[in-house]
Each structure stands twice: as C-alpha cells, then as structure tokens.
Amino acid sequence: MGIPPLDFVVVVLLIVFVVLLAIMVAPINNLIRQSERTLDATEGLIRTLDKELGPTLNEVNLVLASVQEIKAIAEQRLSDVGTRVEDVTGSITKAADQAKTQTSVWGAGITAAFKAYIEGKPSGSERPGSERSTDKRISSSKVS
C-alpha cells in the first residue's frame, strides 16, 4: 500500500466537505427565516409609522400650542400679581411713612406743650398776678 492515489484523496475531501455543508445548512436556514421575520416586522413598523406619524405630529402641535398659551397666561398673571404686590407694598410704605410723620408731629407737639408748661410754671416766690422782674426794672427806671 503506499500513498493513495490523488483521486481517492479528492473524493474523501469532497465527501467531508458535503457532510460539513449539510451540518451547517440547518443553522443557516434558521438564521435566514429569522432574518425574514425581522424584515417583515420592520416593514410593518415602517407602515405603521407612515400611517400614524402624521396625525400624532398634528396632536403634538396642538398640545404644544396649548402649553404655550397656558405659559403666556401664567406669565401675565404672575406679572399682574407682581404689580399688585408692588402697589400694596407702596401703599403700606406710604401709610407707614404717614403714621411715622404723624407720630413725630404728635410727639413734637406733646414735647413742646410739656416744655411750655414747665417753663411757664411760676416759681414759689412769684405769683400769677404779681409783676415780673422785667416789669420792676422798667418801673424803677421811671422813678429815677
């Protein structure tokens, strides 16, 4: 026996190749069927998106417009509230300033009245109907 003829080696390698191809056909067949299902699902998704995307975008635009209107109204109301708060703050400040002014006027008046009362009160040696010291000086100068 020696080296087998070249034809015999080629035939054996060809048979091994066919057997390996037969073993690989089953997984490749499953892979091809799964690819077809994925492609069909993708086509269905594209059809659904084409059919539904237009109306969905219209609804989104309507909702967006409504949200912008609500935002504008809210900003206007907040601005109005801020203006009213400023008005109330100004009124309170004005009333507080008036009260402070009136209180200081009353305080000054009471203080002045108390000082006038204290300064105008006769001392123990002077009587309300008697002549005062300035009157005495005037009368003494007339006599001389």
Summary keywords:
2 helices, mainly alpha, 144 residues
Structure notes:
This protein is mainly α and 144 residues long. It has one domain. It is built from two helices and no strands. The protein has helices spanning 6-120, 133-143. The longest helix has 115 residues, at 6-120. It is rod-shaped and about 160 Å long. Residues 139-144 have low confidence and may be disordered.
Q: Tell me the count of domains.
A: 1
User: How much strand?
Assistant: under 5%
Major sheet summary line: none
Describe the global form. Answer: rod-shaped
Which helices and strands appear, and what pairs or packs with what?
Elements: H1 6-120, H2 133-143
Task: Give the structure's gist in a few sentences.
This protein is mostly helical and 144 residues long.
